[in-house]
Amino acid sequence: MSENINTDFDFDELENSFDFEFDPEGFFDTEAEADVNTRFIKPPLFKPKPDFWKNAKRTAGKIAVEPGMSYFGIIDGSFIFGDLIEALFTEKLIRAYRMDITTLSMSQENVDSLATLLLKGYIKELNLTVSDYFYAHERRQLIPYIQRELDIDNRFQMAVSGNHTKITVARLTNGIHLCIHGSANLRSSGNMEQIAIHDSKEIYDFVTGMNDRVIAKFKTINKSVRRAKLWHGVVEEAAGEVAADQQQPEAGARE
């Protein structure tokens, strides 16, 4: 297995990617406190202002999706993790039979990104597991949005459980078992996170096996309902065609 370990992490570049703002009036509680030397100091507050999608594409461009690949790195919060997944597939033009994602939380932008991958044929089947914490806070907003936007042609399933893992695995059409795991949620940005990317059938099999058990117990989409409706629709349509044929005039009959 080839090893591509990022050992040349540039902390100066990381620092320059953030806009550090030192405001004496906001940093200290009082003017008098600013003149007092203390052992404990407050950390500086910063606000990142990167081009998230551009940075995700640039990072994806450095990852060779090939047999035996193995990467480990520290990301500086200058892109959204979910964007990296979309960028890998769209920039590398890779396809997956199945993709499984587990995350604590996600954003509407993440949902739109995954919908793009489904609608444009980059992934055939998508399984998503989110935390019960996320579900409790978003059950009236993002949860219905997820179900509405991603439940496409019976190719999507969502499970809700006491989940804190952040893992993405995908069985690609070129035989690679793509495995991405680390500290970042799909919507994470603005923080340093660690990330590992492998081609590993062992990890893929372990994670999908676990996900299958979680989905069986905690799924939120009853796919049999749609299949039942589809079957009834087919039966009704066939019955209608038979009735129509019976009403057709026989050959040679007067119209």
Low-pLDDT sequence parts: 14-30, 248-255
General form:
globular
Number of beta-strand segments:
10
Instruction: Kindly provide the radius of gyration, computed on alpha-carbon positions and rounded to a whole number of angstroms.
Output: 25 Å
Indicate the mean pLDDT: 81
Secondary-structure element series = EHEHHEHEHEHEHHEEEEHH
Strand order of the largest sheet: 1-4-10-9-8-5-6-7
Q: Which class best fits the helix and strand makeup?
A: alpha/beta
Proportion of helical residues: 40-55%
Termini Cα gap: 76 Å
Strand content: 15-25%
* Tally of individual helices: 10
Major beta sheet summary: 8 strands, mixed
Relevant terms:
single chain; 255 residues; alpha/beta; eight-stranded mixed β-sheet; 42% helix; 22% strand; disordered C terminus
Provide an overview of this structure:
With about 260 residues, the protein is an alpha/beta fold. The chain is about 40% helix and about 20% strand. The chain contains ten helices and ten strands. The protein has helices at about 10-15, 25, 30-35, 50-60, 80-90, 110-120, 130-140, 140-150, 200-220, 225-245, and strands at about 5, 20, 45-50, 70-75, 95-100, 125-130, 155-160, 165-170, 175-180, 195-200. The strands form two sheets. It has an eight-stranded mixed β-sheet with strand order 1-4-10-9-8-5-6-7, sandwiched between helices. A two-stranded antiparallel sheet has the order 2-3. A hairpin with a 4-residue loop joins β8 and β9. The longest helix has 24 residues, at about 225-245. The chain is globular and about 80 Å long. The termini are far apart. The relative contact order is 0.14. Residues about 15-30 and about 250-255 have low confidence and may be disordered.
